[in-house]
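Weekly modeling sync, notes
Attendees: AB, CL, MP (scribe)

Item 1: holo prediction request
CL wants a bound-state model with magnesium ion before deciding which constructs to order. AB pointed out that an apo prediction alone won't tell us much about the pocket. Agreed to run with the ligand included and paste results into these notes for async review.

Input as submitted:
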Amino acid sequence: MDGRLHPAACLHRESGGRLHAEPDHSYRSCFQRDRDRLIHSKAFRRLGYKTQVFVNSAGDNYRTRLTHSLEVAQISRSICGGLGLNADFAEAIALAHDLGHAPFGHSGQDILNHLMQGHGGFEHNSQSLRLVTALESRYLQFEGLNLCRATLMGMMKRPHVYDCDPTLLPLLELRAQRQPALEASLADHCDRIAYIHHDLEDGLDAGLLNLEMLEDLPLWREARFAVQAADTTSYQRARPPLRIRSILRYMMDRAISDLMSETESRLAALPGASAASIQQLPAADYPVRYSAAMRQGLAELQRFLFERLYRSPRVMQMSRRGERIVEFLFQEYCARPRLMPEHYQQRMEAAGLERSVSDYISGMTDRYAELQFQGLSGRTQP
Ligand code: MG
């Protein structure tokens, strides 16, 4: 299995083992098992009803955290497969990367972080780690999913984790001293590639963005020219939504190809480098990157999305509503913890009141949080 991989790939035998030792599986590699454990987790299923940009009830065609995570996993697998890196490892990290998101997207996270000041704060990456190491309950022998050490380190985007299992501390220290594994860094880039392009599509579908606005963006303009020139008759005959999807597909393919070819040529300049030696490189020499033009183009797209979509009145309104619901629930459960399910009450002794409330609320889907709000407040509007 490892024999076909690039020398700088994270090999299956370099997974670092698990915090609770387990025998190897007869036909699944350690990273394939991690992927399977993630897909079968409760937290993963709940991503289907959590906001990406549009709240889950806004429409059936918009991305959710679940479809976003699947898109990130798909792109990560393609890129790593194409570069000879460990696609199973990248896939596991991609599937885990958004598990810790609170309901109502970033606004849910921000308000929870505000409410948790003085109690360790709240941050979705840290919460993802907490879910897979403590909160998921599927095994008799241990809490969490007992993922490989390499997968856990791949999930540590920031070397800060709150209220963690003390056995994680050596991994955190190790992660803080080095670059991420190539597969982890690529999965992180794929997260950005996926959300930039699908948020553009969802924003256009929702009518919050329009084609004229996009003409100011060089990456969009170049892609439109290229798609139009490749088959002018079909382009002119096509309805606008089909044109949009064709242009976005072209853009995404260009971003992926750019990341792959830049990374590949920088890797080629490091002959004999191993996964371990690459993680010791200074940031400037780390091989995963875009060309300067693509980096700039993507930054422009991201800025555009912030200004025109994420801060649009309709999205801000949905965010504000979500914030109010989370705030109400937090205060309610802190005042009356017995309203929480028994297993969250039981966790209070070890984790503290506020952390247990934060764990309970952050695990909620948008619709479950709405229902709890309505049940407890007797109102439909926060
Ligand atoms: Mg993401």
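Recorded for review: The longest helix spans residues 240-268.
Action items: CL to compare against the apo run; MP to circulate these notes.
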